[in-house]
Amino acid sequence: LIEARQAALDFIDGKIIFLSLIGNVDHGKTHLAIALCRKWLEQGKSAKYVMVPLMLGDLRKGYEQSGEESYQNRFEFYMKVQLLALDDLGVERHKMQDQTAYGMNDWAMEQLETIIDYRYINHLPTIITTNKNMIQLNDLSTRIRSRMARDEGHLVLGIDSPEYSRIKKTG
To answer: What are phi and psi of 135, to 5 degrees?
Structure first.
């Protein structure tokens, strides 16, 4: 938790621009991502927190809309918002209805890879949370995995603490 706190402070200070939080369910990853988004908003910057399966659903809805709600506008928003927090990366592999034998359909993988790659290339602050452990990260595409910890200013942090809800109840 001390490392997670320091990583959060470094993220707000701009020392880290790509923060990936990994660990089991209910260990505070989402809580930390949301707290960072709130801090970002307090500074007058734009931020978006979204669960990956819901983001993919939102993008799909854009095909039925035009104007501000169109797919293109939604897609560009996720690529360009000043801070994007993608929660539960990897969960979409089990929630998407039309999956390939590899677990995620090509369309969903393309959306995620393009958004993450754009943000990486343009040095846009990004937070990723996942319930996968270091070994299971190999289940993610090579492109996504490489963006998570490729350069200075990128950090993959394993959170191995007591369950957050237990700390919250007793603390």
So the answer is: -70, -45
